[in-house]
Design a protein that fits this description.
Blueprint lengths: L5 H28 L6 H10 L4 H15 L3 H30 L8 H28 L3 H9 L3 H29 L11 H24 L3 H5 L3 H31 L27
Helix pairs in contact: 1-4, 1-10, 3-10, 4-5, 5-7, 6-7, 7-8, 8-10
C-alpha cells in the first residue's frame, strides 16, 4: 500500500466522486419523481443519512429540495449527461488505481477504458440501488410479500435477516465486478471475492466509526464554517475509496501468490498455452 501510494490514490478518487455527487442526485431525483410512490425520495434520503455524515445531509437538503421542485424532464436530461461524464471520470481514475495495485501496465486505448468506466458506473450503481431498495422496504415488507405470493410464516420470520443478506450480497457483487473488469489483468471472477468482502466490511466499519466521530468529537462548523458539510462528505468518500483500494491490494497479492509473483494482462496467452511453454531448443545445434 505504501509502495503504490494508496492514500494519495484514495484522495484522487474522493475528488472525482465529489464531482459526480450532485449530478447523481439530480439524476436520481428525476428518476424517482416518475415512480408513483409517496415520499419515496424522502425515504431514500433518510437511508442515506444513516451512512453520510450529519453535516453533509444538512448541507444537501436545501439543494435536493430545489432539485425536486424543478422541472423533471429538464433535470433528467441534464443529470444524465452530467452523471455519465463525471461518474465515468471517477471510475476511469479507479481503473488506473487498480492497475497500479496489480502492477499491471494498461495498454488499452483511451476510448475503451472510458466506455469501460461508463459501464462500471452503470452496473455498480444499479446493484447498489438494489441494495438500497431492499433496505428501504423495511422488515414489514416480508408480511406484504408473503400475503401476495402465499409464502409460509418461515419466510416472514427470516425476512428481517434475509434483507440484510441480500443488501450486503449485492454490495459485495458490485465491488467484485469492479475488481474483475477494471484492472487489465487475467483472473477468475471468484478470485475477487476476498478483496470485495474485505472492502465492504471495512467500508461499513469505517462509516460507523466516522459517524460516531462526526457526532461526538468533530466540530467542522467552527473550522470550515459553511464548508463543513462538504469537508465531512469528502472525508467519508476518502475512506470509502481507501476501503476499495485496500480490497484491490489484497486481491492483487493473492493473485501474485497463486501465480508465482506475476499476473497476466488481459489478452495474454494462458500459462498452459504453447507460448508459455516454448518448445525445447537443441543445445548441440
Amino acid at each position: 500500500m505504501l509502495r503504490h501510494h494508496t492514500l494519495q490514490a484514495a484522495a484522487a478518487l474522493a475528488y472525482y466522486f465529489v464531482l459526480s455527487a450532485i449530478p447523481s442526485v439530480i439524476f436520481l431525483s428525476a428518476i424517482v419523481g416518475f415512480i408513483p410512490l409517496p415520499n419515496l425520495f424522502g425515504h431514500i434520503l433518510g437511508l442515506m443519512a444513516r451512512l453520510l455524515p450529519p453535516a453533509t445531509m444538512q448541507a444537501a437538503y436545501p439543494i435536493v429540495n430545489d432539485i425536486v421542485s424543478s422541472r423533471r424532464i429538464t433535470w433528467l436530461s441534464f443529470g444524465m449527461l452530467g452523471t455519465i461524464w463525471t461518474a465515468s471520470s471517477a471510475f476511469d481514475a479507479m481503473i488506473e488505481a487498480l492497475d497500479i495495485a496489480y502492477d499491471a501496465p494498461d495498454d488499452r486505448p483511451i476510448w475503451k477504458t472510458r466506455l469501460l468506466a461508463v459501464g462500471l458506473a452503470a452496473i455498480s450503481g444499479g446493484l447498489l440501488l438494489v441494495a438500497f431498495a431492499v433496505n428501504l422496504v423495511g422488515p414489514r415488507f416480508g408480511d406484504w410479500l408473503a400475503a401476495r405470493l402465499e409464502l409460509s410464516a418461515v419466510f416472514v420470520a427470516i425476512w428481517p435477516f434475509l434483507r440484510w443478506t441480500i443488501a450486503i450480497g449485492f454490495a459485495v457483487l458490485a465491488v467484485e465486478i469492479i475488481y474483475f473488469l477494471a484492472p487489465n489483468v487475467k483472473q477468475r471472477f471468484a478470485a475477487t471475492l476476498p478483496g470485495a468482502v474485505l472492502s465492504v466490511a471495512a467500508w461499513n466499519g469505517l462509516s460507523s466509526v466516522l459517524g460516531f466521530y462526526f457526532r461526538h468529537f468533530a466540530n467542522y462548523n467552527r473550522t470550515y464554517g459553511a464548508l463543513a458539510g462538504l469537508i465531512a462528505f469528502m472525508v467519508w468518500l476518502y475512506w470509502t475509496s481507501f476501503a476499495l483500494l485496500v480490497g484491490a491490494e489484497l486481491n492483487a497479492e493473492l493473485a501474485k501468490e497463486s501465480k508465482k509473483g506475476r499476473v497476466l494482462p488481459r489478452g495474454a496467452p494462458s500459462e498452459h498455452s504453447s507460448e508459455s511453454h516454448p518448445l525445447p531448443v537443441d543445445r548441440a545445434a
